[in-house]
């Protein structure tokens, strides 16, 4: 029976009659099929008067684990301490882990001190989710010294989420930065600034927690002409240093969006193979280790006609192992600076007017597949399409925020930032690309036809002077 039919057959009045009469409910549970039972169990609502206790208890022998789970869930609503033993039995013995977890949750929901020894015993369960539920139940009594002591004992639990919650709740460890500056503000000298110079040299002088959002596409190892690294290891080490600095200069709980993709270094001759480097997969663990929390993986998909054709050979020979798909995707990896604070905390740092102005009111991407054509530029070989920058800025920043690109290239991110009423801070080491940005400015070619401040172009020496002036 489908849901619409069930909904018609068991409306709210019907369900009220069932749950307020033990006999009627019992005979219903005994005679109806699993589909009807599940539907009614999911819609029983509040159960204070205890009429449903006996019929629900009988369902605990049901073969269908979903029905046992829903029976436990409903029994928990009755709030009857005499059910503690039954919940414990199912928490330990049920063959379904889902039913065991629900039973521990039911014990916690009793919020009764008698449950403490049982919850403590469940801290030793082999299923981390059962342990997590037991912790939840025990945290209600977090002032109780025995409870605290027992929770402390599992600080070295192998599960990372358990370790994190114990550290936070019992040991008071948090990731907060302690920065006292206002969250929606940043140093004035970084406003619409372009630094011509090396990113590491520049970042040395950027104050902690200045940036609201970083969106960047780093060099593609040695795949393009603008960078040369002795080895892949040297390349990854360089990115690690830069992204550690990006972490330092990022405000609490704010986002870092990274555009990378696997690259291919062509073979030197027919006797050798070409080599693929899985850059996103190698960078990810480095980022997580330094304190970036993984949030999302967005896939930027380009039209097939715009990318290099790799499958001409396969098209002819059709032999397994020789298959080479055309690479139409790049990764847009989304991270957040690790913190104990929820996203709501970040939002609450802005006044209502700014939140309102920043709302994404027009059409937005509903999935993690973003179809955007590439942009080709006469000077730079790998520029961001402005549409991509627009989306990232709108989804991950507020108006008047500072948007940073440590590998700015042609500065497309700056253009998008200004157009969306944000400020930019860009670093680029190649004079030809910075000149490209200036050219755009002189031609009044929209790039910086800024309604707000005009952009400031400096080299590293002058940037250092700026940072010193700011301190005076
Ligand atoms: C993939 S491109 C970025 C393109 C950019 N997203 C755009 O829209 O034009 C990477 C850029 O990083 C720059 N770069 C590489 N190493 C750098 C360094 N050590 N300091 C500053 N910029 C660097 C390169 O010159 C190149 O322009």
Automatic annotation (TrEMBL):
Output the superkingdom of the source species: Bacteria
GO process terms (BP) = DNA restriction-modification system; methylation
Q: Which family does it belong to?
A: Belongs to the N(4)/N(6)-methyltransferase family. N(4) subfamily.
Q: Which InterPro entries match?
A: ARM-like, ARM-type_fold, DNA_methylase_N4/N6, MeTrfase_CN4_CS, RM_Methyltransferase, SAM-dependent_MTases_sf
Pfam families assigned to the protein according to its UniProt record, in alphabetical order? HEAT_2 (PF13646), N6_N4_Mtase (PF01555)
Q: What is this protein called?
A: Methyltransferase
Q: Where is the DNA methylase N-4/N-6 domain positioned along the sequence?
A: 211-438
Q: Which UniProt keywords apply?
A: DNA-binding, Endonuclease, Hydrolase, Methyltransferase, Nuclease, Restriction system, S-adenosyl-L-methionine, Transferase
Catalytic activity reads:
a 2'-deoxycytidine in DNA + S-adenosyl-L-methionine = an N(4)-methyl-2'-deoxycytidine in DNA + S-adenosyl-L-homocysteine + H(+)
Which Enzyme Commission number(s) are on file for it?
2.1.1.-
State the Gene Ontology terms under molecular function.
Answer: DNA binding; endonuclease activity; N-methyltransferase activity; oxidoreductase activity; site-specific DNA-methyltransferase (cytosine-N4-specific) activity
